Amino acid sequence: MRSFDLSGRVAIVTGGNGGIGLGMARGLAEAGASVVVAGRNAAKSAAAAAAIGGVAIEVDVTDEASCRALVARTVATLGRLDILVNNAGINIRKRPQDLSLAEWREVLDTNLTSAFTCAQAAHPEMIRAGGGKIINIGSMMSIFALPVVPAYAASKGGIVQLTRALAVAWAADNIQVNAVLPGWIDTDLTRAARAQIDGLNEKVLARTPAGRWGTPADFAGIAVFLASPASAFLTGTAIPLDGGYSVQG
């Protein structure tokens, strides 16, 4: 369908060299977009970009200058910027009393502040392009809580409110901003969680109506929808992609 065609569009996916980010980057590329895979690990990003026919650009999303350089290099290389996926993220699993302030700041800076910084850098380029799409990656921890992820939960709750604020602020610029809230997805990050949290795998499967963990490939479709003209009247939303986990009692 033409409304889902991304030919001629340019996308940046932070943390796009693996997991959910790579799943989204692959979907965008398959829909016709030119995709920049942005990450700290240059070799991993280069391999991911090669696999999807994209471009790799190294970035430290916790550094404002690096985020602005990412946008500038993207435009210099590909001519424009239409789509930004703020996917880069980390987690430090500790109870609140054991989490240092430095660890708190590291998680907030990587997961939340970086989304603001990258979006702010992208804004003028999207205006020049006639509009744009920003997709922020939240989490089930945007709406639920676990005792060992205080900073992560705060950052992902903040992503939802940042999404709403940007959506309202930039609607007149024809920029739609939405969030995706992944459920339990089989990635390197959640494999570490399964190793640290006894019984997590069984609990997830018991609560998820789909009866399985999600995969990065499950995120290709939502990425294309939210990046395409098909979602032109959708903004400020936070969409769970979780196999029904969040609606199961």
Describe this protein's structure.
By secondary structure, the chain is of the alpha/beta class. It has a single domain, classed as NAD(P)-binding Rossmann-like Domain (Rossmann fold, 3-Layer(aba) Sandwich), CATH 3.40.50. It contains 8 helices and 7 strands. Strand 2, helix 2 and strand 3 form a beta-alpha-beta unit. Helix 1 crosses helix 8 and helix 3 runs parallel beside helix 4.
What's the short story on this structure?
By secondary structure, this protein is an alpha/beta fold. It is built from 8 helices and 7 strands; from the N terminus they run βαβαβαβαβαβαααβ. It has a 7-stranded parallel sheet with strand order 3-2-1-4-5-6-7, with helices on both faces.
What tags apply to this protein structure?
249 residues, alpha/beta, Rossmann fold, 7-stranded parallel sheet
Shape: globular
Tally of separate helices: 8
Largest sheet data: 7 strands, parallel
CATH class: Alpha Beta
CATH homology group: NAD(P)-binding Rossmann-like Domain
* Number of structural units classed as domains: 1
Q: Examine the secondary-structure arrangement and name the CATH architecture.
A: 3-Layer(aba) Sandwich
What is the percent of helical residues? Answer: 40-55%
Strand content: 5-15%
Average of per-residue pLDDT values: 96
Q: What class would the helix/strand composition place it in?
A: alpha/beta
Oligomer state equals single chain
Strand order of the largest sheet: 3-2-1-4-5-6-7
| Rg over alpha carbons | 17 Å
Task: List unreliable stretches of 5+ residues.
Answer: none
